[in-house]
Protein backbone atom coordinates (compact mmCIF):
# COMPACT_ATOMS: atom_id res chain seq x y z
CA UNK A 1 0.00 0.00 0.00
CA UNK A 2 1.29 3.39 -0.97
CA UNK A 3 1.84 5.89 1.84
CA UNK A 4 -0.44 8.81 1.06
CA UNK A 5 -2.07 11.53 3.10
CA UNK A 6 -5.40 9.72 2.83
CA UNK A 7 -3.82 6.47 4.10
CA UNK A 8 -1.99 8.18 6.97
CA UNK A 9 -4.96 10.20 8.15
CA UNK A 10 -7.27 7.20 7.83
CA UNK A 11 -4.86 5.09 9.88
CA UNK A 12 -4.55 7.79 12.57
CA UNK A 13 -8.30 8.38 12.75
CA UNK A 14 -9.03 4.66 12.92
CA UNK A 15 -6.46 4.20 15.67
CA UNK A 16 -7.75 7.12 17.74
CA UNK A 17 -11.43 6.23 17.31
CA UNK A 18 -10.57 2.59 18.09
CA UNK A 19 -8.87 3.61 21.32
CA UNK A 20 -11.91 5.68 22.28
CA UNK A 21 -14.31 2.87 21.37
CA UNK A 22 -12.23 0.46 23.46
CA UNK A 23 -12.21 2.84 26.40
CA UNK A 24 -15.97 3.35 26.17
CA UNK A 25 -16.61 -0.39 25.86
CA UNK A 26 -14.36 -1.26 28.79
CA UNK A 27 -15.78 1.50 30.96
CA UNK A 28 -19.35 0.39 30.23
CA UNK A 29 -18.64 -3.33 30.34
CA UNK A 30 -16.46 -3.55 33.43
CA UNK A 31 -15.90 -0.28 35.28
CA UNK A 32 -19.42 1.07 35.80
CA UNK A 33 -20.97 -2.35 36.53
CA UNK A 34 -18.16 -3.05 38.99
CA UNK A 35 -18.39 0.18 40.92
CA UNK A 36 -22.17 0.04 40.61
CA UNK A 37 -22.03 -2.69 43.24
CA UNK A 38 -20.54 -0.32 45.81
CA UNK A 39 -22.52 1.57 48.41
CA UNK A 40 -23.46 5.16 47.60
CA UNK A 41 -20.45 6.86 49.23
CA UNK A 42 -17.88 4.47 47.76
CA UNK A 43 -19.53 4.60 44.34
CA UNK A 44 -19.57 8.41 44.27
CA UNK A 45 -16.00 8.66 45.61
CA UNK A 46 -14.73 6.17 43.03
CA UNK A 47 -16.48 8.00 40.21
CA UNK A 48 -15.14 11.35 41.39
CA UNK A 49 -11.60 9.98 41.43
CA UNK A 50 -11.92 8.33 38.01
CA UNK A 51 -13.38 11.50 36.47
CA UNK A 52 -10.52 13.53 37.86
CA UNK A 53 -7.85 11.09 36.74
CA UNK A 54 -9.15 10.67 33.17
CA UNK A 55 -8.78 14.39 32.53
CA UNK A 56 -5.19 14.20 31.33
CA UNK A 57 -3.34 15.24 28.17
CA UNK A 58 -3.19 11.76 26.64
CA UNK A 59 -6.94 11.25 27.04
CA UNK A 60 -7.69 14.64 25.48
CA UNK A 61 -5.37 13.96 22.53
CA UNK A 62 -7.08 10.64 21.81
CA UNK A 63 -10.64 11.81 22.50
CA UNK A 64 -10.58 15.11 20.62
CA UNK A 65 -7.84 14.06 18.20
CA UNK A 66 -10.24 11.45 16.84
CA UNK A 67 -12.50 14.22 15.64
CA UNK A 68 -9.87 16.69 14.43
CA UNK A 69 -7.76 14.09 12.63
CA UNK A 70 -11.06 12.72 11.34
CA UNK A 71 -11.78 16.08 9.71
CA UNK A 72 -8.42 15.88 7.95
CA UNK A 73 -9.29 12.33 6.87
CA UNK A 74 -12.55 13.53 5.31
CA UNK A 75 -10.66 16.03 3.16
CA UNK A 76 -7.83 13.61 2.37
CA UNK A 77 -10.32 11.00 1.14
CA UNK A 78 -12.32 13.37 -1.09
CA UNK A 79 -10.49 12.32 -4.22
CA UNK A 80 -10.10 8.63 -3.42
CA UNK A 81 -13.69 7.62 -4.22
CA UNK A 82 -17.22 8.65 -3.39
CA UNK A 83 -17.51 5.54 -1.20
CA UNK A 84 -14.43 6.46 0.85
CA UNK A 85 -15.48 10.06 1.24
CA UNK A 86 -19.05 9.31 2.36
CA UNK A 87 -18.15 6.48 4.72
CA UNK A 88 -15.38 8.52 6.38
CA UNK A 89 -17.74 11.50 6.61
CA UNK A 90 -20.41 9.30 8.22
CA UNK A 91 -17.90 7.82 10.68
CA UNK A 92 -16.60 11.23 11.76
CA UNK A 93 -20.09 12.72 11.97
CA UNK A 94 -21.36 9.79 14.06
CA UNK A 95 -18.34 10.14 16.34
CA UNK A 96 -18.86 13.87 16.73
CA UNK A 97 -22.59 13.65 17.44
CA UNK A 98 -22.62 10.50 19.53
CA UNK A 99 -19.34 10.73 21.38
CA UNK A 100 -18.09 14.32 21.49
CA UNK A 101 -21.42 16.15 21.81
CA UNK A 102 -22.95 13.55 24.15
CA UNK A 103 -19.87 13.81 26.35
CA UNK A 104 -19.78 17.60 26.37
CA UNK A 105 -23.51 18.14 26.89
CA UNK A 106 -24.46 14.94 28.75
CA UNK A 107 -21.70 13.27 30.74
CA UNK A 108 -19.55 16.31 31.55
CA UNK A 109 -22.35 18.32 33.22
CA UNK A 110 -23.14 15.28 35.39
CA UNK A 111 -19.43 14.87 36.17
CA UNK A 112 -19.28 18.53 37.22
CA UNK A 113 -22.22 18.10 39.58
CA UNK A 114 -20.48 15.12 41.13
CA UNK A 115 -17.13 16.91 41.30
CA UNK A 116 -18.63 19.81 43.27
CA UNK A 117 -20.25 17.52 45.82
CA UNK A 118 -18.72 17.41 49.28
CA UNK A 119 -19.13 13.68 49.76
CA UNK A 120 -17.39 13.51 53.14
CA UNK A 121 -19.89 15.93 54.66
CA UNK A 122 -23.04 14.58 52.98
CA UNK A 123 -25.73 12.60 54.78
CA UNK A 124 -26.72 9.14 53.61
CA UNK A 125 -29.91 10.61 52.13
CA UNK A 126 -27.92 13.27 50.25
CA UNK A 127 -25.55 10.62 48.92
CA UNK A 128 -28.45 8.44 47.79
CA UNK A 129 -30.14 11.41 46.08
CA UNK A 130 -26.90 12.42 44.32
CA UNK A 131 -26.33 8.90 43.09
CA UNK A 132 -29.92 8.69 41.80
CA UNK A 133 -29.44 12.00 39.99
CA UNK A 134 -26.11 10.88 38.52
CA UNK A 135 -25.85 7.14 37.87
CA UNK A 136 -28.68 6.25 35.49
CA UNK A 137 -28.47 9.39 33.31
CA UNK A 138 -24.69 9.05 33.11
CA UNK A 139 -24.96 5.38 32.10
CA UNK A 140 -27.60 6.18 29.45
CA UNK A 141 -25.38 8.85 27.91
CA UNK A 142 -22.44 6.48 28.07
CA UNK A 143 -24.38 3.74 26.28
CA UNK A 144 -24.86 6.17 23.38
CA UNK A 145 -21.10 6.75 23.37
CA UNK A 146 -20.35 3.01 23.32
CA UNK A 147 -22.68 2.41 20.39
CA UNK A 148 -21.62 5.42 18.33
CA UNK A 149 -17.88 5.01 18.95
CA UNK A 150 -18.15 1.36 17.92
CA UNK A 151 -20.13 2.19 14.77
CA UNK A 152 -17.64 4.90 13.85
CA UNK A 153 -14.72 2.53 14.39
CA UNK A 154 -16.39 -0.19 12.30
CA UNK A 155 -17.03 2.24 9.44
CA UNK A 156 -13.41 3.33 9.46
CA UNK A 157 -12.28 -0.28 9.40
CA UNK A 158 -14.53 -0.93 6.41
CA UNK A 159 -12.98 1.98 4.55
CA UNK A 160 -9.50 0.73 5.44
CA UNK A 161 -10.08 -2.78 4.11
CA UNK A 162 -11.68 -1.43 0.92
CA UNK A 163 -8.78 0.91 0.09
Short recap of the structure:
By secondary structure, this protein is an all-alpha fold. 85% of the residues lie in helices and 0% in strands.
Strand fraction equals under 5%
Multimeric state of these chains? single chain
Taking the alpha carbons of the first and last residues, their distance comes to 9 Å
Alpha-beta content class: mainly alpha
Order of helices and strands: HHHHH
Q: Strand tally, please?
A: 0
Low-confidence stretches: none
Number of domains: 1
Q: Characterize the main sheet.
A: none
Radius of gyration: 18 Å
Roughly what percent helix?
Answer: over 70%
Shape: elongated
Average the pLDDT over all residues and give the rounded result.
94
Total count of helical runs of at least 4 residues: 5
